[in-house]
Amino acid sequence: MNYRHAFHAGNFADLQKHAILLALLKALTADESPLAVIDTHAGAGAYDLRGDMAQKSKEAAAGIGRLLAEGDAPEPFAPLLKAVEELNVGNKDAPLYPGSPLLIARALRRSDRYAACELRDDDFDQLRKVLGPYAFAQALQADGYATAEARAGRGGRTFVLIDPPFERPDDYAQCVATVRAVRAVDPAAVLAIWTPLKDLETFDAFIRALENVTDDALVAELRLRPLRDPMKMNGSAMVLVGAPTDIEPQVAQITTFLAERLGDTGAAGRVWRA
């Protein structure tokens, strides 16, 4: 399946990823220490849910559309819902959805730094426009894995978001290699990795490989349906390395709520330490 961001903007996986991302950024910016953020696969930065790709999948209606309509999401979703609301001031239909770059830029301070990597020409052009108002943010048309390794530990605490399209056969291995490389130069670095959940063996193999390079991983599994069909995105996961322990209750609440509210019969949200 195509994991390009625009097809899935505002879907259940985005809700999990972005709610957890904002909780993590709040914790990492709680003191005065500067934060250096590297986003390995930034995408376009913001998405029109009326666009061709979003309309083809129609996943946003069952994700952000449902949360906005029902209006009873728990507190950890408040920062994300506020960001969506502010992006759509004057437009009650909320056709725009903020991607990770816009959410990150809005959450950071002037003393922080943000490098957003995107290789696709069309998405990169849009990304530069989205980040234009933020002087501390830089859009790079560069390989995100290599950039994370090269920039980690260069002043300020390092935070790396790894959110690849998983269209390359080595993306899982690259995620693990990036964790190893970043933590080697900055042991205090925090990393957040998003992955699809299609079949159990692929995900388990990834976690086993990750356990060989770190013993500090928090895994949030969101299963909307049983992992029986590897051709479908049956769920998603956020794997946090080095994250502050006090965000674990929020991660669990986000994941459990989405499983109960958006999942099929037998859906489950599980948070555990690898």
Automatic annotation (TrEMBL):
Pfam families: RsmJ
Keyword rRNA processing annotated: yes
Known catalytic reactions: adenosine(2030) in 23S rRNA + S-adenosyl-L-methionine = N(6)-methyladenosine(2030) in 23S rRNA + S-adenosyl-L-homocysteine + H(+)
InterPro entries: RlmJ (IPR007473), SAM-dependent_MTases_sf (IPR029063)
Known EC number: 2.1.1.266
Annotated site residues (Interaction with substrate rRNA) in this chain: 3
Positions annotated as active site in the UniProt record: 163
Alphabetically ordered keywords of this record: Methyltransferase, RNA-binding, rRNA processing, S-adenosyl-L-methionine, Transferase
Protein family per UniProt: Belongs to the RlmJ family.
Protein name: Ribosomal RNA large subunit methyltransferase J
Gene behind this protein: rlmJ
